[in-house]
């Protein structure tokens, strides 16, 4: 049903949780860097005060499985229990870019190791919470495959192995999903990837077929998971339970080749595609419920971006697209992946020693306004029986 909510609130908050290594070898830990591990309860109270009752969180795999097959969930239990006490619904990312020190992501054992983590964590959830669990087995299969396997911009910093890595991550996502369902048959599974639009440069119209072929790459992981492509990987329609789409201001660009950075196009460009049409295409292609799993931007543009995305999502919903939520990502500012710069892209800033976080008031105001608008739309859809 179009009017049926996926989550306890339409707006969600996403806590940045990347744990991959920089090229220099230094490992990131964004949960610790943002002090969310210390102040989860305080953070959840802030979210609830703004009407947010659902979040995205991630496991820090390298801390949980420091040696193969031995799991220590001390790093996640305080967050899990704080969420339970706050009545906060959580989507748990199992793999958010970082792997344990002893594990090569290309190694066939990666698939079994992720499945083992999934099974152990599902057992933990089974004993800690009565909520219907939400799991995202592998965050951004397509992005990791391109950035980490094709152009060496992300751990594992490989080149020309993107297709190989994508197959590996799909196998792992399927194995992890089955492991979760073995323990928790009611678990909901979200497969999250960026959506984007690519066009040829007007001075190079001969590149239009290449640009369109590149645009369609965004569907490959979902096609593999559902068995529409490369069925030997084990994909089936049941694995596409819920689709999460990530959308940022830089997700539309002019094609400059398969490995080169594209030139970002803005909403006033004639080739810009409305986000509502992108959502409609995903819904029509897969027939599954979806949500905006990540969206946001930096600085003074934060409120305006939320206004724009919300307007497009409402338009999509009114066209019958089953969009079940929007996740502000990140919900708190974090230090940049590459240089530790203070990324001002959240609703709240760094915490002080007492856990207090200063809000970005324009974004807070816009969130309240958009939340009211979505509540009105949902009430109207329920009245209409949509």
TrEMBL record:
InterPro entries (alphabetical): GH
Source species, domain of life: Bacteria
Protein name per its UniProtKB record: Beta-glucosidase
UniProt organism field: Aquisphaera giovannonii
């Amino acid at each position: 049903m179009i009017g049926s909510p996926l989550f306890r609130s339409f707006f969600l908050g996403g806590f940045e949780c990347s744990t991959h290594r920089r090229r220099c070898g230094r490992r990131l830990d964004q949960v610790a860097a943002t002090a969310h591990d210390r102040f989860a309860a305080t953070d959840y109270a802030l979210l609830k005060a703004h009407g947010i009752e659902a979040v995205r969180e991630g496991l820090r795999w390298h801390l949980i499985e420091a040696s193969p097959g031995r799991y220590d969930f001390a790093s996640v239990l305080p967050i899990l229990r704080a969420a339970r006490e706050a009545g906060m619904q959580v989507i748990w990312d199992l793999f958010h870019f970082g792997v344990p020190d002893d594990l090569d992501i290309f190694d066939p054992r990666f698939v079994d190791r992720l499945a083992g983590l999934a099974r152990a964590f599902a057992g933990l959830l089974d004993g800690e919470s009565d909520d219907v669990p939400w799991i995202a087995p592998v965050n951004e299969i397509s992005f990791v495959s391109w950035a980490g396997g094709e152009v060496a911009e992300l751990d594992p910093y490989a080149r020309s192995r993107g297709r190989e890595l994508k197959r590996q991550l799909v196998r792992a996502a399927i194995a992890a999903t089955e492991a979760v369902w073995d323990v928790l048959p009611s678990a909901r599974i979200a497969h999250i990837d960026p959506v984007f639009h690519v066009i040829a440069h007007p001075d190079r119209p001969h590149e239009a077929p290449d640009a369109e072929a590149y645009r369609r790459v965004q569907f490959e992981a979902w096609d593999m998971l559902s068995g529409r492509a490369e069925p030997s990987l084990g994909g089936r329609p049941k694995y596409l339970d819920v689709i999460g789409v990530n959308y940022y201001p830089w997700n539309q660009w002019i094609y400059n080749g398969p490995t080169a950075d594209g030139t970002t196009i803005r909403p006033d460009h004639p080739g810009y595609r409305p986000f509502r049409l992108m959502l409609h295409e995903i819904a029509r292609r897969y027939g599954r419920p979806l949500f905006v799993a990540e969206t946001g931007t930096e600085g003074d543009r934060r409120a305006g971006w939320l206004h724009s995305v919300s307007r497009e999502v409402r338009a999509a919903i009114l066209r019958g697209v089953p969009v079940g939520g929007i996740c502000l990502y990140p919900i708190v500012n974090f230090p940049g992946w590459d240089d530790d710069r203070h990324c001002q892209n959240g609703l709240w800033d760094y915490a002080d020693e007492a856990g207090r976080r200063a809000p970005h008031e324009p974004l807070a105001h816009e969130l309240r306004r958009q939340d009211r608008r979505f509540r009105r739309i949902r009430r109207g859809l329920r009245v209409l029986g949509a």
